[in-house]
Every structure is written in structure tokens, then in C-alpha cells.
Specification:
Layout lengths: L1 E3 L1 H7 L2 H16 L9 E5 L4 E10 L2 E9 L11 E9 L5 E6 L1 H19 L6 E5 L3 H10 L7 E5 L3 H11 L2 E2 L2 H5 L4 E4 L17 E5 L18 E4 L2 H7 L1 H6 L3 E4 H6 L10 E5 L4 H17 L1
Parallel strand pairs: 1-6, 7-8, 7-10, 8-9, 10-11, 11-14, 12-13, 12-14
Antiparallel strand pairs: 2-3, 3-4, 4-5, 5-6
Helix pairs in contact: 2-3, 2-10, 3-4, 3-10
Length: 299
């Protein structure tokens, strides 16, 4: 079987192409054209890790992402998220290709937030606040700049040296969390926090919050006030099982992003704030991997 490593994937995958691919994948998912379960998670407690299995059937291909999350890897100089994606022909079951999934996970996550931002953020949005300073902070700065013309980017991390380093790389300014959020038009949370890092009292009217980092029942990035608005999710089923922010706050889900993109539910226009809770879907990984595979075969 052909295997594409991260550098090969990097050469074939561009955010400009990935954003519309994610939009189509989300529409197809919410329309019921994708078959996928909520991801299965196998804890690896002896190594403080998680192993996730994410299969999906998407038209003429089936795929599965095997992803590991080892937060302690940061201290070892290793990626905290690593993955392999396998594509299989849906009509014959024939294995097609395997590829590194770390970069795909990084870019498709940011691309989905870009889809949400293009649809839900104010057209006049000029200030972006990013809470978190890792791989996703950098990817989101790149992706969201493709859909809004931000004049100012603010960065915060629990480690301010990390925040300053990230801010320098993305052309932003490091500051404390409250200062970063107050007055921001779009806020992105991409942390590993189990406790809320974003307070609703800091948020301006009309803000869009892309809540990305907290996946799992014990993880929260938003306090109860922050999530009091119009809540949009990538998947209702996943949110009901995997979003501590939604489950523990009791916040109702208004719509899936794919429903808003397809026009089957109206885009919220009178909300004090919109919260997009992104958990990450197998269809996003499979659609991104298929994009890579198609480009590889065209070379």
C-alpha cells in the first residue's frame, strides 16, 4: 500500500482548497449523506494517553483515522496529537492509501473554524483573540485570515513565554486572557484546559466564539456565561457525548453548522453571541485525505 508521509501531505494540501472541501463535508454530514458513528475512545491510562478510532463512509471512499492524544508529549518535544488515515474503496473494499494524519488534523480543524467564521462572524470583524499557543493557535491564525481581514490578533497562553513566541510567529500581540478577549470580534479557544479559560463577562455583543480545544466530558474551556448564546455544533450526536462545555452548562444546541451552510436552518442574526463548538468529525478527515489522494494521483 502507498504511504504518504507528512511532508508529502504538506505539499499536496492547501488551506485554500481545504476550506471549501470542509464546507461540503459538513453539508453532506448534516444532510445524512455520510455514515459515521461518534468516535470510539480507548484510554491508555498507563501512559496518560487516548486512542481514538474515527471511521466514515463518504461516497466512493471509506476511511478511518487512528488518532492518539498524549498531552505529556509536549514535554518530550513530540506532537501531542498523532494520527494515520487509511482510505478504502467503498465499492470493493480495496485498500487505497495510508497517510500521516497529524497535519490533516491540524489543518482541517482550522479550516472548519474558517468555514464557521466566514458564515457566522460579523463582516466587519477586525479583532481576533486566540486563547492557546500551540499548533492549533498558529493554524487558526492562518485559516481565519483567509475569510476575514483582521487588523489585530491577540494571543494568550497560561505560559506567557509561549504566548509571546506564538504572537511573534502569527503577527500578533501577547497579553492576558481578559485583555485579549475584551473588544474582540472573534475568539478562538484552543487549549487543553479542563477548567474554563474564557469568561462570558469578557465577551462583546455580537462576538463569534470558536470553541475548539475541549473534547471530552471532563474538559471545559468556556464558563456557563460564555456559552449562553446561540450554540452551533459540527455534530449533535458528538456534542451530546463529547462536549463538557455543552453537557455541564445545559446549553441548548441551535443547529449543526452543516444545516446553516445548506440553508435548512436560518443563520442566527439577532443573537448576543454565537458559539461554534467544534469537536472534529471523521468525515472531515476522510474528505481531507481524499483531497490529498486525488492530488497525488493527478501528479
Amino acid at each position: 500500500m502507498i504511504y504518504l508521509d507528512e511532508e508529502q501531505v504538506r505539499a499536496l494540501l492547501q488551506l485554500d482548497d481545504l476550506i471549501p472541501a470542509m464546507e461540503k463535508a459538513l453539508i453532506d454530514f448534516s444532510a445524512g449523506r455520510i455514515r459515521q458513528p461518534v468516535r470510539s475512545i480507548l484510554p491508555i491510562p498507563e501512559h496518560s494517553g487516548l486512542w481514538g478510532l474515527m471511521p466514515a463512509v463518504c461516497g466512493d471512499v471509506m476511511g478511518i483515522k487512528l488518532v492518539t492524544v498524549y498531552e505529556g508529549n509536549a514535554k518530550r518535544g513530540l506532537p501531542t496529537h498523532q494520527a494515520v488515515i487509511h482510505l478504502i474503496a467503498a465499492d470493493t473494499g480495496e485498500p487505497l492509501v495510508a497517510m500521516d494524519g497529524r497535519l490533516i488534523t491540524e489543518l482541517r480543524t482550522a479550516a472548519v473554524s474558517a468555514v464557521a467564521t466566514r458564515l457566522l462572524a460579523k463582516p466587519s470583524a477586525r479583532i481576533l483573540a486566540i486563547l492557546g499557543s500551540g499548533v492549533q493557535a498558529r493554524a487558526h491564525a492562518r485559516a481565519l485570515r483567509l475569510v476575514r481581514s483582521f487588523e489585530e490578533i491577540r494571543a494568550w497562553s497560561r505560559n506567557m513565554e509561549h504566548a509571546r513566541r506564538c504572537a511573534s510567529e502569527i503577527g500578533g500581540k501577547a497579553m492576558d486572557a481578559e485583555s485579549a478577549v475584551r473588544g474582540a470580534d472573534v475568539v478562538v479557544t484552543v487549549t487543553y484546559s479542563a477548567e474554563p479559560v474564557l469568561k462570558g463577562a469578557w465577551l462583546s455583543p455580537g462576538v463569534l466564539v470558536n470553541a475548539v480545544g475541549a473534547v471530552g466530558l471532563v474538559k471545559r474551556e468556556l464558563d456557563d456565561e460564555a456559552i449562553q448564546g446561540t450554540v452551533v455544533v459540527d455534530s449533535r450526536a458528538a456534542a451530546a457525548q463529547e462536549s463538557g462545555d455543552i453537557i455541564h452548562s445545559g446549553a441548548p444546541v441551535y443547529a449543526e453548522l452543516g444545516e446553516l451552510l445548506a440553508g435548512t436552518k436560518p443563520i442566527p442574526t439577532n443573537s448576543n453571541r454565537v458559539i461554534f463548538k467544534s469537536l472534529g468529525l471523521a468525515v472531515e478527515d476522510v474528505a481531507a485525505a481524499k483531497l490529498v489522494w486525488d492530488r497525488y494521483r493527478q501528479r
